[in-house]
Amino acid sequence: MSTDSDELLSFKDFPPTTTHSSGSGGIAQISINSPSKSTSSAQGGGGDALEELIYSSSAAPVSGSPDDENQGKGSKMYSFWSIEYYQQFFNVDTFMVMDRIASAIIPKRAPSTYLKSQIGANPDLYGPIWIVITLIFSIAISGNVANYLQQADTNFRWHYNFHLVSYAATAIITYACLFPLGLWAAFKWSLRPTSADMETDTSNYTPGLLTLLCIYGYSLAIYIPVSILWVIQISVLQWLLVMTAALMSGSVLIFVLMPALRNSKFSLILILVVIGAHFLLATGFMLYFFHVPSTDEAPLALNTNKTIAN
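RESULT FIELD:
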């Protein structure tokens, strides 16, 4: 009984049933690495179907591969009125948005080629739109809280000022849209001609309008936490926050835009305009929405509020 079991479990070599000239012994040989198929030695058997399946699978392009996506982006043209046209402006993930926010707040975090290689190669509107919307409501809500704290020790009945949302939206959207447009026109108009011996990778490079909108949208991110800190009713601290936020965000703007600023005939003037506009924006936020009234201004403001309430 044990002998029969051992024979059943043992491996046996069977000779090939047909001898072929190739000497392959009836084994089908298939090469999937080369474009041409290897001819199977078995004629009319199941090897031909298997060979055809493997060859067709290896030769056919894989749908959804990165190469196909890149080719599709370059070949497909979408209408301006289609949704697919605007999808390219939101082609970012959470990690990319957070990295761009950090690069817009922390000076010298971004590489020197950040403008052309990262923002210019893939500008997005997803991050800037959400930053602008968040900043509008952050300033409006914090401004009302600051106004409430200023009137907390008086007998004045405080009311929420909904007009602050409109004022903040007008100021922020105007700055985030019109200033990049003006800067883009200035870059185009003041482009400095370069000789052949001075050409570099960034010579004659001017950022596009979408790139500038993306950069300026992310540059406003620093004012979201600052607007919350402006609620603290200490005038010295408020001015310190104005200078710190404007200097940090403004220096990042200058560093990122430096490749384009070098190519401008009026690079020094544009640098002063960029820094000055950023300081004016921060100063306007603080003075209009959060400014602590002085002791002489407090009774006048209180009487004005009572007159409006009546």
